[in-house]
TrEMBL record, chain A:
InterPro entries: MetI-like (IPR000515), MetI-like_sf (IPR035906). This is Sugar ABC transporter permease. CDD domains: TM_PBP2 (cd06261). One of its GO terms (biological process) is transmembrane transport. Keywords: Cell membrane, Membrane, Transmembrane, Transmembrane helix, Transport. The chain crosses the membrane at residues 20-41, 78-101, 113-134, 146-167, 188-213, 246-268. Pfam families: BPD_transp_1 (PF00528). Belongs to the binding-protein-dependent transport system permease family. Residues 78-268 form the ABC transmembrane type-1 domain. The lineage of its organism: Bacteria, Bacillati, Bacillota, Bacilli, Bacillales.
UniProtKB/TrEMBL annotation, chain B:
The keyword Nucleotide-binding does not apply. It comes from the Bacteria. It is found in: Cell membrane. PROSITE patterns: ABC_TM1. This is Sugar ABC transporter permease. One of its GO terms (cellular component) is plasma membrane. The chain crosses the membrane at residues 28-48, 83-109, 121-142, 172-194, 215-239, 277-299. It is a multi-pass membrane protein. Keywords: Cell membrane, Membrane, Transmembrane, Transmembrane helix, Transport. Residues 84-298 form the ABC transmembrane type-1 domain. The lineage of its organism: Bacteria, Bacillati, Bacillota, Bacilli, Bacillales. Belongs to the binding-protein-dependent transport system permease family. It comes from Fictibacillus enclensis.
Length: 284, 306
């Protein structure tokens, strides 16, 4: 009895200790964000950074944020990113749903071989394709448009793979029942299977969104026009232009670029973390 | 008798559906058209075109065949090997720091009862922000005079490195950024797999009188071997492709003094600031082969089923 009590007490102390450690390191991890916001609200940080660092600036001001919005480039970049990302997600997820369904429920010649081809695309990184794709889009005069960013999203081996795995778990009998009723393959897909695919569609949208939103090297290669810059491109060009001058302005800009994603993350955290874990556990 | 005829009817129906399905075989290819159009145009064609280009001298308009000269020139170029060295150095330290660190935190989060979800969300936060924005912030965080890191180091009496302004420490600045950004991902993957270890194993160990730490060493760690292999290889493949953050912090040539120019940045510099398409293609092929080898090992190790 006595031993049990002390065991419980020990457990409690250990639990409290763990909690404190996790909290301290967690706060340490987000310190850069906290500092970013603090410096962003400091007007004088553009001339001299506040030193020693403070949590709340001496003279808080929204001056830097005013400039970020007045200038309009960030909003423009957001619009560009939104157009590119939504289109990429749309075509990537649609194409992968069709292919994933066919690889799961279809019976046709060469299914295995074609699926191996899809898996092989998982091994092909962007770098060796940069120059030929650049030349390809150049030859059809589509550089400095959004097409080169959107069209290659048509193929994602990872999305097809995740989608096939999901449909594999759904019973074939649904298909047979629907076809005894005389429905064709497309009707069966759209009426029976697609409505059941909600969870995997959500995962696919989240992953495709993250990939497209954060894409950097390829957009850097095909977009020179400042008017067309996506958010990462605008941030990088601002950063390379100004270096570590204009601390206040840079941090205000960084804050505004991070904030919408963080808010989205806080709302969808459960699904985002699940999606990441799923894509991680299953390969790539 | 009646039963039999119903059975026969059903069987005939099923047969009909089956034979119908055979006729519809072609329809399935329609489902695959968009994806395979993408594969042909954006995967197969560029991979072969890139291989062809690596045997040509090319600036995008004029081309002529020069055999293996591009490969020779890349493999004898100091700046290429410097880029390889930088890429490997940053990658190796990022991985050997982040995986154990992430695993330890995942274990602690997994064993705590209070606020598990809160910590998950908190620790994953750096990973959801784009690495470009993160690099932008870290240029200030690691600033030698005004940054918070050196402020803390100075306050506790440690030397304050020049970080990104000094070629001898700039790679460490990138490593710190990379660890900070990646650790959340490692934690999430570890947590998912920690929760998949059957609890019976721990219960049996407890009955045998194993302490918490013993359980961790003899049950948890061996069960996580596959996860570590997966993280090691995906981390390594990602590290070989590092570009975004070094471009933001040091430009295409990886300043200061090319000390943070990675292979990706080398390719970008030669291909898109110098327009030496042949040289850049040869370099991408060398990198591609490296990545291919590691991806192949990954698929073998994680036993992805087809």
């Amino acid at each position: 009895m006595k031993a049990g009590l002390s065991y419980r007490k020990r457990e409690q102390i250990a639990g409290g200790f763990k909690f404190v450690i996790l909290l301290v390191f967690g706060l340490l991890l987000i310190t850069p964000f906290v500092w970013m916001v603090s410096v962003g609200f400091d007007r004088t940080a553009n001339v001299t950074m506040p030193f020693p660092p403070k949590l709340v600036p001496k003279h808080p001001s929204s001056f830097n944020f005013g400039i970020v919005f007045e200038n309009g480039s960030l909003i423009k970049a957001y619009l560009n990113s939104a157009i590119v990302t939504v289109s990429s997600v749309l075509i990537g997820v649609s194409a992968s749903l069709l292919a994933g369904y066919a690889f799961s429920k279809g019976r046709f010649k060469g299914k295995k071989v074609l699926f191996v081809v899809v898996l092989c695309t998982l091994m092909i990184p962007m770098e060796p394709r940069l120059i030929p794709l650049y030349k390809l889009f150049n030859s059809v005069h589509l550089l400095n448009t959004f097409w080169p960013l959107v069209l290659p999203s048509l193929i994602s081996g990872m999305l097809i793979f995740l989608c096939k795995q999901f449909f594999d778990q759904l019973p074939d009998t649904l298909r047979e029942a629907s076809q005894i009723d005389g429905a064709g393959e497309f009707t069966t897909f759209f009426r029976i299977y697609l409505p059941l695919a909600g969870p995997i569609v959500a995962t696919m949208i989240i992953l495709a969104f993250i990939w497209s939103w954060n894409d950097f090297m390829w957009p850097l290669v095909v977009l020179n026009d400042k008017e067309l810059q996506t958010v990462p491109l605008y941030l990088a060009s601002f950063s390379l232009e100004n270096g570590t001058r204009l601390g206040g302005l840079t941090m205000a800009l960084a804050t505004m670029s991070v904030l919408p994603i963080v808010i989205l993350y806080l709302f969808l955290q459960k699904y985002i973390i699940q999606s990441i874990a799923l894509s991680g556990v299953k390969g790539e | 008798m009646a039963n039999n005829s119903i059975e026969l009817n059903v069987r005939m129906e099923v047969e009909k559906v089956r034979s119908k399905r055979k006729d519809w075989g072609l329809k399935w290819y329609v489902f695959l058209i968009p994806s395979f159009l993408g594969i042909l145009l954006f995967m197969v064609y560029p991979i072969f075109e890139s291989l062809r280009l690596s045997f040509y001298q090319s600036n995008g308009t004029v081309e002529h065949y020069i055999g293996l000269a591009n490969f020779k020139s890349v493999l004898t170029s100091n700046s290429f090997w410097n880029a390889v060295w930088n890429t490997f150095f940053i990658g190796i330290f990022q991985i050997i720091i982040t995986i154990p660190l992430g695993f330890i935190f995942a274990s602690i989060i997994n064993s705590t009862k209070r606020g598990q979800n809160f910590f998950k969300v908190l620790y994953f936060l750096p990973n959801v922000t784009s690495i470009v924005a993160a690099a932008m912030i870290f240029a200030f965080v690691l600033h030698p005079e005004m940054g918070i890191v050196n402020y803390v180091l100075h306050a506790i009496g440690l030397p304050t490195p020049g970080w990104l302004s000094d070629p001898s420490t700039s790679k460490w600045a990138v490593i710190i950024l990379a660890v900070w950004h990646w650790v959340g991902f490692v934690i999430i993957i570890c947590l998912a797999n920690l929760q998949a270890i059957p609890s019976e194993m721990y219960e049996a160990a407890k009955i045998d009188g194993a302490s918490g730490l013993q359980q961790w060493f003899f049950i948890t760690i061996p069960n996580m071997a596959g996860t570590f292999a997966f993280l090691l290889i995906t981390g390594w493949i990602g590290a070989l492709q590092r570009f975004n953050e070094v471009y933001v912090l040091g430009g295409p040539n990886g300043s200061p003094a090319r000390s943070i120019q990675t292979m990706g940045a080398f390719i970008y510099e030669r291909g898109f600031t110098g327009f030496e398409f042949g040289i850049a293609s040869a370099a991408t092929y060398i990198m591609f082969i490296l990545i291919l080898v590691f991806t192949f090992i990954n698929l073998k190790v994680s036993k992805m089923k087809i």
